[in-house]
Amino acid sequence: MPEKKIYITSEKVVKVSFLVDISDVLLNLLIAIISGSVVMFSQALQGGADLLASGLLVFGIKKSKRLPDHKHPFGYGREIYFWTFLSALTTFLITAGVSFYLGLKRFLDPQPIDNVNLVIIVLLVSILTNGYAMSLSFRRLLGKNIYKNIFKIFLHSAFIATKTAFVLDLMGTLASILGLISILLYKFSNNQKLDGLGAMLIGITLAILAIFILKSAKDLLVGQSAPPDTEDKIKSTVEALSEVKKVIDLRTLHIGTGTLLVDIEVNLQNDLTTDKIEILIDKIQADIIKQVPEAKEVRVELETPKVEALLK
């Protein structure tokens, strides 16, 4: 019996992240009030900002799915980049900044923590829930690729909503781990400054990861091309056709999550009739879409040898 393949969508990844953030906020805030730990307040703050960030992603995905119209002939797919940028900006300005401030304040004015064991249990639960949400986004980014290429895939992936959800959940997991380490050190050393130090480390970690997402979203907003290996695949696919002499120019543009615009100029053999050229253009488009499924919009332009010579 063939193994059933489970397809993970960006929407599912973001919604799971959103639900995890809700649970984090409620649980961490309750424990922060009970224990008085600034690490737990930082965790609650981080969860609150993540909740807002995830909410912006959920809203952005919904807005980006609107159908094309006269004003937006290629649809609204790129709108997700705007909401992702706002999401990352929220994380950077609110979560990281306030978390670091609260940690510094507690570091300079240490206070004892009540119910340390309860704090440890909640942090362990937070690691598990954020880790599960992170695993979903990780599997979505990885797709059919092998694990050793994950860093390259992460850098070049245009699944910006999934990538942001991954970073948010990674931040939640790392924040919980750092919080757990600082609380455990506090428990065994009774050094009250470690609570504040843990919160500051959380803030620094969040800021670094948020900056990375801001840059990715900015590149996609400005207009980012497909990765070099994708463009090479498109060129080789087209040049494999006997009727095509050479690919003169290739331009690609991400116009939404998993949606690529391809504009390709080709130089054809001289003995082709008009009917054959029309059939060939359809074949070029079909072959590109088959090899690169995210190429939803494919434009094929013809160049004559004379124009090609002038371009050189």
Automatic annotation (TrEMBL):
Q: Where is the Cation efflux protein cytoplasmic domain?
A: 227-303
Keyword annotations for this protein?
Membrane, Transmembrane, Transmembrane helix, Transport
Gene Ontology cellular component annotations, sorted alphabetically: membrane
Principal place where this protein is found?
Answer: membrane
Q: Which residues form a coiled coil?
A: none
What is a biological process (GO) this protein takes part in?
zinc ion transport
Q: Which SUPFAM superfamilies match?
A: Cation efflux protein cytoplasmic domain-like (SSF160240), Cation efflux protein transmembrane domain-like (SSF161111)
- Matches recorded under Pfam families: Cation_efflux, ZT_dimer
The protein's matches in Gene3D superfamilies, at most eight in alphabetical order, are given as:
Cation efflux protein transmembrane domain, Cation efflux protein, cytoplasmic domain
- Which topology term describes how it sits in the membrane? Multi-pass membrane protein
Q: Membrane-spanning residues where?
A: 12-34, 40-59, 80-104, 116-138, 159-185, 197-214
* InterPro entries associated with the record: Cation_efflux, Cation_efflux_CTD, Cation_efflux_CTD_sf, Cation_efflux_TM, Cation_efflux_TMD_sf, SLC30A9
Q: Where in the cell is it found?
A: Membrane
The UniProt record lists the Cation efflux protein transmembrane domain at 14-221
Q: Which GO terms describe its molecular function?
A: monoatomic cation transmembrane transporter activity
Protein name (Swiss-Prot/TrEMBL): Uncharacterized protein
Q: What is the native source organism of this protein?
A: Candidatus Beckwithbacteria bacterium CG10_big_fil_rev_8_21_14_0_10_34_10
Traced from the root, the source organism's taxonomic lineage reads: Bacteria, Candidatus Beckwithiibacteriota
